[in-house]
Design a protein that fits this description.
The protein is mostly helical. It has four helices and no strands. It has a single domain, classed as Arc Repressor Mutant, subunit A, CATH 1.10.10. Helix 1 packs parallel to helix 3 and helix 2 crosses helix 3. The radius of gyration is 16 Å and the shape is extended. The model has no long low-confidence stretch (mean pLDDT 89). The structure holds zinc ion. The site of zinc ion has 6 residues, from helix 1 and helix 3.
Length: 78
């Protein structure tokens, strides 16, 4: 597994959503790869900060739809 294949898995790794077999693959790669180790550390930090934020009420559906569209447009432009 290379770095590009691993990166999408890192966020699931830190949130504990990966199956054991994949977790081990990620752990082995991260142990030998400073690039992915740094990413993993920043993801862990992000998850911890997000978990500490106060919960807010659900967004109004119309606002959520607009935000999702705006985000999708931005991602599409990259
Ligand atoms: Zn890597």
């Amino acid at each position: 597994m290379n770095c590009a294949e691993l990166e999408p898995l890192l966020l699931e790794f830190v949130s504990g959503e990966l199956v054991i077999a994949v977790r081990e693959t990620v752990e082995v790669h991260v142990t030998g790869c400073p690039h992915c180790e740094a990413l993993l550390i920043s993801y862990r930090h992000t998850v911890r900060v997000a978990a500490a934020l106060p919960k807010c009420a659900a967004l109004p559906a119309a606002l959520e739809a607009r935000l999702r569209k705006a985000l999708a447009d931005q991602v599409g432009e990259e």
